[in-house]
């Protein structure tokens, strides 16, 4: 992969893990990612190696590179971000901006892969919540989230967190443990 492939914007899955500093949970999350049939990724033996790279197979569309970054700050929640370069998405799909699943039905396969990845991670390494969208890393956290204030973001919420937020939107999820809400 060319270094230039990683310049520019990203379509991201960002998962917040709390309480803080639980390396075992992050290791399990990375191991679960590596076991998915549509993912080519080898989980590292140490959490010191960030970023990590792999590819997603998007059904008949081919493969997209991704980068996993762990964001760890003392006293703050840990984050696991899966980022796909927009330039690579544009090579496969004809997309419209703002870049969202709602505006680009062609991204359905990518969206399904990333939500399945989130579900797989959640089963072994529960997270507070996750977001999926264009350049969403750092957009909000579980303490300040207010879904009605965001557009073009998909929120992936554990059922208990959805109730806590008082979200009354119809659910758009086929996942066993999580609810998907497109805004």
TrEMBL record:
Organism: Sutcliffiella rhizosphaerae
Top-rank taxon, per record: Bacteria
Name of the protein described by the UniProt record: Uncharacterized protein
Lineage per the UniProt record: Bacteria, Bacillati, Bacillota, Bacilli, Bacillales
